[in-house]
Task: inverse folding
C-alpha cells in the first residue's frame, strides 16, 4: 500500500465511523487532513496518518450509538471492545487501522491511527493541507 492509499484509508474509516455513530454535527481535527507521523515497518522507516473528529451535539442513546460503531468496525475487519463504565466507549485495532477509539462523553469523539506503510512522514507534512478535506 502506498502512503497516499494509507492516508485515504484513514479518512474513509473516520467517515464511516461518523456515519455509523448517528451523529451529523462533527468538527474534523487538523482541517480534515490526516496528520503524518513516523513509524517503523519491518525495521524500516515508515509513515502513518492520524485523524480525529468530535461532535458538537448531544445524543440520546450513546450505548446504542457505541454498538453501531462497533458493528461498523466489525464489518470492515476491525476487532473492537465496548467499555461501558463510566460512559460507553469503543476501542479497536487491526484491519485497516493501527488503533481507533470512539467516546461518547463529554461529546462524541473519534480518533483514528492509520496503519504504517513504507515512506517518509516529512514528505507529507505540507501535502496534507493541500489535499481535499473530507466532509462528514
Result:
Amino acid at each position: 500500500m502506498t502512503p497516499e492509499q494509507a492516508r485515504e484509508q484513514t479518512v474513509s474509516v473516520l467517515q464511516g465511523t461518523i456515519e455509523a455513530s448517528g451523529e451529523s454535527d462533527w468538527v474534523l481535527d487538523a482541517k480534515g487532513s490526516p496528520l503524518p507521523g513516523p513509524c517503523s515497518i519491518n525495521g524500516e522507516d515508515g509513515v502513518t496518518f492520524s485523524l480525529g473528529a468530535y461532535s458538537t451535539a448531544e445524543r440520546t442513546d450513546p450505548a446504542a450509538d457505541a454498538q453501531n460503531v462497533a458493528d461498523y468496525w466489525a464489518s470492515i475487519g476491525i476487532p473492537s471492545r465496548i467499555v461501558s463504565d463510566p460512559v460507553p466507549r469503543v476501542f479497536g485495532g487491526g484491519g485497516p487501522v493501527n488503533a481507533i477509539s470512539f467516546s461518547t462523553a463529554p461529546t462524541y469523539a473519534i480518533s483514528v491511527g492509520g496503519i504504517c506503510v513504507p515512506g517518509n512522514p516529512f514528505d507529507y507534512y505540507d501535502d496534507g493541507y493541500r489535499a481535499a478535506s473530507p466532509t462528514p
